[in-house]
Amino acid sequence: xxxxxxxxxxxxxxxxxxxxxxxxxxxxxxxxxxxxxxxxxxxxxxxxxxxxxxxxxxxxxxxxxxxxxxxxxxxxxxxxxxxxxxxxxxxxxxxxxxxxxxxxxxxxxxxxxxxxxxxxxxxxxxxxxxxxxxxxxxxxxxxxxxxxxxxxxxxxxxxxxxxxxxxxxxxxxxx
Length: 175
What we know:
46% helix; 175 residues; Rossmann fold; four-stranded parallel β-sheet; single chain
């Protein structure tokens, strides 16, 4: 039974120096805390733009050799949104009968997403989830703030979540 699970949010399949610094921070945490499982959510949100590999595949390729802990759990390759990632993780934990109460869950994300990840985690993963953020994104936080507002609304109106998912699928499809 897993006592501690770490979830590492991804930000594209092309690992910039900023993203590598973020992942290095997460690796340091994992090597200190030694979680039993690491979940790499994500999907192909940037497929065709920069790479044909998934976000989890890119992160595992970079992070794997740096970790002093062995267990990995790779979850999700079909999500296009932050909410989709968190929902997929909740389904994954339930599918493998991993209790959300009594299991420490730590989610790493970019600082501009921390509040919405906390909201999603409480909603879908339970109140004991801890969210740690690393500020690495040099771009304006304004687009992310708009997306966070939309995500907040989609939690309350499920049809908005479906609409956003389909819009992202179309946006990143091979058209």
